Amino acid sequence: MKGKEVSVCAFIFARGGSKGLPGKNIRELGGVPLVAHSIRTAQQVARVRKIYVSTEDEAIARVARQFGAEVIDRPAELATDTAPEWLAWRHAIDTVFARDGAFDVFLSLPATSPLRSVDDVDACLDALNDSTDVVVTVTPAARSPYFNMVTRTQEGQTNLVIGGHGAARRQDAPAVYDLTTVAYVTRPEFVRTHDRLFDGRVGSVVVPKIRAVDIDDIHDFQFAEVLIRAEQQ
């Protein structure tokens, strides 16, 4: 997407019903509510036209407005533990098209990755091109299905997830990566006409582990606090 004049809208999808860490999306990290970290990052990305927070939770909506984002009221059925976020993406796109008009690029910045940088987001936007339908972020994995990840039968028989490679050291096995929640970039029509990310041609941007922390529970949150404090010193 380099060099092209396109309209980019940023979206943050934040439910109120987190089980792993209740109230996490408005819990303060470094003195700022978690969801506001994503809003602030989006505000620093020059190509972003508008920023939306999709939520069913009024407390999250108040914080979103306070920090300068517009709110999309997410239907309750799209905010349950079992509702695919893809459907919330589709709802948000349809809402913006009806309310504010069409746009070219959909950028999702999950609230759970507050340590991303503006450069990470710009790299993802640049990576969306004629050969990709979706861009995701990845970080080097600590474990490898070729070397130290195994399956186990009921009888205890244990085997490598991917055997036959013959790597004697992890460094000799093919490089593998963990998907992160730093950013997702795609086009609105792809979300409207497909059912999941990997239905299309997926590109990726590698993000260092220190910026790819994904907050799911209190331990993740505490780790992010340590990193934020170190950054602020």
TrEMBL record:
Gene Ontology terms for molecular function: N-acylneuraminate cytidylyltransferase activity
Keyword Nucleotidyltransferase (UniProt): yes
CDD domains: CMP-NeuAc_Synthase (cd02513)
E.C. code: 2.7.7.82
Alphabetic keyword roster: Nucleotidyltransferase, Transferase
Keyword Nucleotidyltransferase: yes
Taxonomic superkingdom: Bacteria
Name of the protein: CMP-N,N'-diacetyllegionaminic acid synthase
Organism (species): Pandoraea aquatica
Origin organism lineage: Bacteria, Pseudomonadati, Pseudomonadota, Betaproteobacteria, Burkholderiales
Gene expressing this chain: neuA
